[in-house]
Amino acid sequence: MPGSTVPTLAEADEAAAGEGEPTRVEFAEYGGREADCPARLAVDLFGNSWLTVIVYTLRDGPMRPVDLRREIGTISQKMLTQTLRRMETMGLVERRRYAEAPPRVEYGLTRAGIDLLVPIFALGEWVDEHGELVRNSLYGDETD
């Protein structure tokens, strides 16, 4: 991401190697309260469980809604439509209509949607490393 102050995963790994602490990123002043932190927007995005699943599913290119739903599996048509419309409004996906009979629609990631894959992959790495601990703490060790 050219011009961005957020390090790539590789840069963060290099910076944190041997330090034992996460990389800190400095942002411009955003207000006097922690509640004003712009990172809350990202937390809100990740609070919608289907949004990240759809972004991840579109990672390899545009898809028709029927194919998206088939690939995702458990999402209802209504929820898929609502989430795609919300994502289009947010600038994360682009809806492309083709003048064909029958009509065809595809959704693909915008630049902002593609860039959202970076934290999605980072969270995946975190879950790979710490997910079992959290799962066992919440639900108990299922191997008993």
Distance between the termini: 46 Å
Task: Please describe the biggest sheet, giving its number of strands, its sense, and whether it closes into a barrel.
Answer: 2 strands, antiparallel
Based on Cα principal axes, name the global outline: globular
Q: Give unreliable regions as ranges.
A: 1-6
Average pLDDT metric: 84
* C-alpha Rg (nearest Å): 19 Å
Total of DSSP H or I helical runs spanning 4+ residues: 7
Beta content: 5-15%
Question: What's the layout of helices and strands?
Answer:
Elements: H1 9-16, H2 39-47, H3 49-57, H4 65-72, H5 77-90, E1 93-98, E2 104-109, H6 111-115, H7 117-139
Antiparallel strand pairs: 1-2
Highlighted features:
disordered N terminus, two-stranded antiparallel ribbon, mainly alpha, 144 residues, single chain
Report on the structure:
There is one protein chain. This protein has helices at 9-16, 39-47, 49-57, 65-72, 77-90, 111-115, 117-139; strands at 93-98, 104-109. It is mainly α and 144 residues long.
